[in-house]
Amino acid sequence: MTILVTGAAGFIGFHLTQQLLTKGFDVVGLDNLNDYYDPQLKYDRLGQLGIAQEDIKQNVTCGSFNYANFKFIACDLANRQVMEALFAKHHFDLVVNLAAQAGVRYSLEAPFQYIDSNVTGFLNILECCRHYKVKKLVYASSSSVYGLNDKVPFETTDAVDHPISLYAASKKANELMAHTYSHLFGIQTIGLRFFTVYGPWGRPDMAMFLFTDAILNNRPIKVFNEGNLSRDFTYIDDIVGGMLSIIETLKTDQWKPPYALYNIGNSKPVKLLDFIEAIEKTTGRTAQKEYLPMQPGDVAQTWADVSDLTRDFGYTPNTPISEGVEAFVSWYREYYNR
């Protein structure tokens, strides 16, 4: 199969691409390398995939010096002309759309970026799949679509009609758009509602990174809702393992439904203060905690019911928090020489 992975320089996209290449898939990676967080981290992820930073800046399709089966292009999903040319050239068998403007809180500051990337960009993906006969699409949704749902664990059959951030609304829009294109044009679509993914090479705006960075640099950490939060923290290897199972199944044409949504999480929520304690234990430092009220657009708890993903694709997350935190802290210390 030839697979397009959008957001290939992002956290999940990088890890998925690396595993796909190792398994011998032909992969074209795409990312706009924006400055929502330090682009150098994105360039360094691509470096692990054999893409030279100086080649990217020449604004051409780059070949990997580590993987003969990988090419990368710096491009924005909202650029319709470039996207159409990309699809016309490569004849993809499957698209994995992980590119998006991420972050709940940032959507309060830069709403147009969310519409450009998450709505217009996703429409370009759907239209390219339609016109260039790509019949299989896996795309990133988010646990944020559950909004203030107080029924736990969250199930994909729950109503998600009341998002509390523009980011969540954009992801709900993706699910509706995918359903429409599945119905009208026969594109098999699988939406994955990710639950608080963490691990090595993680995003600097996520709790795992923020807390570790602050603790190791003797700065206070911000603990929202006075610490009364819990999250379904999910280790990156478990996420990628689940996605690979889906892709392998799609490769064999054994999955028949035209449209589906799945939660992909750990299904074992952890209290925020327990998560911080695990980081303290691993780093050997005590966090300076600054307790703050709940942030706009945030929710008190997340908890994924993943039984349908387990039933259909054998998904089995099994990385304990202690092990995942240790792996992240080890990577952070090495990457930043701390």
Describe this structure in words.
- This is NAD-dependent epimerase.
- Keywords: NAD.
- It holds the Pfam family Epimerase.
- This protein is of the alpha/beta class.
- The chain has one domain: NAD(P)-binding Rossmann-like Domain (Rossmann fold).
- An 8-stranded mixed sheet has the order 3-4-2-1-5-6-7-12, sandwiched between helices. The chain has a two-stranded parallel ribbon with strand order 8-11.
SSE run: EHEHHEEHEHEHEEHEEEHEEHEHH
Reported by name, the CATH topology is Rossmann fold
Estimated share of beta-strand residues: 15-25%
Largest sheet: 8 strands, mixed
Structural class: alpha/beta
Structural Rg: 19 Å
Which percent range fits the helix content?
Answer: 40-55%
The CATH architecture designation is 3-Layer(aba) Sandwich
CATH superfamily: NAD(P)-binding Rossmann-like Domain
Shape type? globular
Keywords: NAD
Protein name: NAD-dependent epimerase
Domain NAD-dependent epimerase/dehydratase: 3-265
InterPro entries: Epimerase_deHydtase, NAD(P)-bd_dom_sf
